[in-house]
Design brief:
Blueprint (H helix, E strand, L loop, with lengths): L1 H5 L2 H24 L3 H27 L1
Length: 63
């Protein structure tokens, strides 16, 4: 119940923004520096933040 109070629309926007920042800002910088492993990690985390944030928001609204 406490989690339902914490995870609102603001938190959803924040999670999606973090994911987009990782994908659009950090990944190109890491690619330019030729840090392939770090680039893959940042890309995976970006997708996890975006998909996970949306999934958590939907789950909180359903339950």
């Amino acid at each position: 119940m406490k989690f339902k109070e914490i995870y609102d629309g603001y938190m959803l926007v924040l999670m999606v923004f973090i994911g987009l920042f990782l994908l659009l800002r950090d990944v190109p910088l890491l690619r330019k520096k030729k840090l392939k492993r770090d680039m893959k990690i940042a890309k995976a985390l970006g997708y996890v933040y975006i998909i996970g944030g949306i999934a958590l928001f939907v789950m909180v609204r359903i339950f």
